[in-house]
Amino acid sequence: MKLLLLGPPGAGKGTQAKLLMDKNxxxxxxxxDILRAAVKHSTPxxxxxxxxxDKGALVPDDVVVGLIRERLKEDDxxxxxxxxxxxxxxxxxxxxxxxxxxxxxxxxxxxxxDLIFRLSGRRTCEKCGEVFHVKFNRPKVENIxxxxxxxxxxxxxxxxxxxxxxxxxxxxQTNPLAGYYRKNKKLxxxxxxxxxxxxxxxxxxxxxPEAIS
Length: 213
Ligand code: AMP
Prior knowledge:
- The protein has 213 residues and is of the alpha/beta class.
- The chain has one domain: 3-Layer(aba) Sandwich (Rossmann fold), CATH 3.40.50.300.
- The chain contains nine helices and eight strands.
- A five-stranded parallel sheet has the order 2-3-1-4-8, sandwiched between helices. It has a three-stranded antiparallel sheet with strand order 6-5-7.
- A hairpin with a 5-residue loop joins strand 5 and strand 6.
- Helix 2 packs across helix 3, helix 4 runs parallel beside helix 5 and helix 6 packs across helix 7.
- It is globular.
- Adenosine monophosphate binds next to helix 2 and helix 3.
């Protein structure tokens, strides 16, 4: 099954992608994660992407489309995958439609005020990527991941000024994708303000009704 998670930064795409990945045994492909790894290792791609990411702007389409095209050639995607954070513009969606057909597009809807609160308090594990929040999902030991014991850090782009820029980019460049996929009759709209388990069950109800626990 090929799934695409759409929604603003902080909507819970990563959390749902991980739950879907475990349930369906298909990989999560997050362009944000791939780009952050490239930045960390100072590769030529990372150096180019960093300029944009640090400002809360989108990385140019040709860069991310090239990256996805290569990723989708790997062996582990044979039975499907979950795209998380790609596409983010209409040209990216058009490029994707030339590479493959997606089964379901899941649009997680969350108001901006909630997103600012979620993102500015978000803490991420540097080792396994598990996500916590300083107020509503605190780790058992401060700054330590419950899952793997890794250290938690605040993403550079989870700073309030940059969050506002990322939301601006979302409204201008990514939100029009909902209309694009609605036209293709592939869009599933989900209320992303509920708790992760309820959101997950709402998604399963549509894509895999017999798998609801
Ligand atoms: P994310 O982790 O998905 O919030 O992505 C973090 C940052 O990576 C974004 O703010 C963009 O700068 C960049 N990025 C990730 N995915 C894309 C994409 N599909 N197109 C352009 N830029 C992207």
